[in-house]
């Protein structure tokens, strides 16, 4: 079987949304299928994409070409598109795929990218769509795009979601009715799945947030406001932020404004999350928009309690009061309430660690790649 995988991620060399299709591609190659991945050009070849290439899959790159700003550029753009009927996705035709797997970094990319939408609609190749980041806050449904979204999603051979909450949110917002739905997990990419011993809690509590420094999505600025309150300033903690992103300077400035800059530590990106959880006690995740954050699944398998907002699939994995503490809404008041409950049980975190890891291992589908491959293979 020939499988064409289209990734809509651009502006970044890699992201959590890429991890699932990467493992699917590698597994499909091992099972004797042929895979072609069509991705946007990267500044740096990420190890995950290199692994896809090493598996024997083909990778093609496209440039992210929005409508140019100059008049001449606009004329050339529309000439190629309307007169020459150029569609960048037509490069897939020579591969002659038996099915197409569209991996969306966002929620409705396959509908809003006109080239991709037209390629899927006009072609006769069955396709599957895998949305990832689905916004739940102030969802604005564009009436112009609504029929495009409904057409692309309802005519797909199947839809893949990483959380039930994402599916419910998207179906409710756009009135979708595709009944062929599969729920997958994200791959766990750790150096080992062995237990990570809980660090001693000797007075100083170490919070950690593992996420890109993008406040609009990950909400670190909201948590900064919480920890900058007088109540939290009276307590003995440090907050380690792991990750990089465009809002690092903003967050550093906020730490200064709240006078907690000596307790907020920017650790940068790390390749081994196990090292993070050898040092830190509690994963605090104030996110605003998610599918199912890979960072949380990784901290759970390492046995760390989580305080997080009730977004995406988080509450499907973190049981409030048992394996973590859920903030009912992604605002400062609710995050403070959840973090307060966690703080009051901090002496129980070490004991919770064993239960957290055991429950996660029982719930996680370690055959995710094979099951996902079977789903798309039997759906055509």
Which features would summarize this protein structure in a list?
globular; single chain; Rossmann fold
Polypeptide structure, described:
- Strand 1 (2-7), helix 1 (18-30) and strand 2 (34-40) form a beta-alpha-beta unit.
- This protein has 380 residues and is α/β, with parallel strands linked by helices.
- Strands 3-2-1-4-5-7-8 form a seven-stranded parallel sheet, sandwiched between helices. The protein has a six-stranded parallel sheet with strand order 11-10-9-12-14-15, sandwiched between helices. Strands 6-13 form a two-stranded antiparallel ribbon.
- The chain has helices spanning 18-30, 47-54, 71-83, 109-112, 114-122, 146-154, 164-174, 215-218, 220-227, 230-233, 248-257, 273-279, 294-301, 314-317, 332-344, 349-363, 368-378, and strands spanning 2-7, 34-40, 58-62, 99-103, 127-130, 134-135, 158-161, 181-183, 205-210, 237-242, 264-268, 282-285, 289-290, 306-309, 324-327.
- Helix 1 packs across helix 17.
- Helix content is 40%, strand content 18%.
- It has two domains: 2-185 and 366-378, Rossmann fold (3-Layer(aba) Sandwich); 205-363, 3-Layer(aba) Sandwich (Rossmann fold), CATH 3.40.50.2000.
- It has 17 helices and 15 strands.
Short description:
It contains 17 helices and 15 strands. By secondary structure, the chain is of the alpha/beta class. The strands form three sheets. It has a seven-stranded parallel beta sheet with strand order 3-2-1-4-5-7-8, with helices on both faces.
Contiguous helical run count? 17
Shape: globular
> Gyration radius, to the nearest Å?
22 Å
Shape-level CATH architecture of the largest domain: 3-Layer(aba) Sandwich
The order of strands across the largest sheet is: 3-2-1-4-5-7-8
Report, as a whole number of angstroms, the end-to-end distance.
11 Å
Please state the average pLDDT score. 92
**CATH topology group of the largest domain:** Rossmann fold
Given helix and strand content, the structural type is: alpha/beta
Share in β-strands: 15-25%
| Helical coverage, percent range | 25-40%
CATH homologous superfamily label of the largest domain: Glycogen Phosphorylase B
The residue ranges in which pLDDT falls below 50 over 5 or more consecutive positions are 73-78
Major pleated sheet? 7 strands, parallel
Number of domains: 2
* CATH secondary-structure class of the largest domain: Alpha Beta
């Amino acid at each position: 079987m020939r499988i064409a995988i289209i990734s809509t991620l651009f502006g970044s060399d890699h992201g959590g949304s890429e991890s699932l299709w990467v493992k699917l591609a590698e597994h499909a190659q091992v099972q004797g299928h042929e895979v072609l991945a069509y991705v946007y050009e990267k500044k740096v070849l990420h190890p995950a994409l290199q692994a896809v290439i090493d598996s024997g899959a083909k990778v093609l790159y496209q440039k992210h070409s929005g409508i140019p700003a100059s008049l001449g550029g606009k004329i050339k753009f529309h000439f190629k598109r309307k007169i020459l009927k150029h569609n960048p996705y037509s490069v897939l035709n020579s591969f002659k795929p038996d099915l197409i797997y569209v991996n969306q970094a966002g929620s409705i990319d396959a509908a809003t990218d006109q080239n991709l939408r037209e390629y899927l609609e006009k072609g006769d190749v069955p396709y599957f769509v895998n949305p990832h980041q689905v916004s739940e806050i102030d969802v604005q449904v564009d009436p112009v795009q609504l029929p495009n979204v409904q057409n692309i999603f309802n005519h797909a051979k199947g839809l893949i979601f990483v959380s039930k909450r994402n599916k419910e949110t998207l179906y409710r917002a756009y009135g979708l009715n595709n009944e062929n739905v599969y729920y997958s997990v994200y791959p766990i990419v750790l150096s080992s799945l062995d237990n990570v011993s809980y660090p001693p809690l000797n007075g100083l509590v170490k919070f950690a947030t593992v996420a890109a420094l993008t406040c609009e999505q990950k909400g670190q600025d909201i948590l900064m406001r919480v920890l900058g309150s007088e109540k939290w300033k009276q307590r003995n903690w440090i907050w380690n932020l792991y990750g990089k992103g465009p809002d690092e300077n903003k967050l550093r400035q906020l730490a200064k404004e709240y006078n907690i800059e000596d307790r907020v530590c920017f650790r940068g990106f790390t390749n081994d999350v196990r090292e993070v959880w050898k040092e830190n006690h509690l994963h605090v995740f104030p996110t605003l928009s998610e599918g199912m954050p890979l960072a949380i699944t990784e901290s759970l398998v390492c046995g760390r309690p989580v305080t997080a907002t009730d977004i995406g699939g988080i509450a499907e994995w973190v049981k409030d009061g048992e394996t973590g503490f859920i903030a009912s809404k992604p605002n400062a008041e609710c995050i403070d309430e959840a973090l307060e409950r966690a703080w009051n049980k901090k002496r129980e975190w070490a004991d919770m660690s064993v239960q957290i890891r055991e429950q996660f291992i029982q719930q996680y589908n370690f055959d995710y790649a094979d099951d996902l491959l079977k789903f798309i293979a039997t759906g055509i």
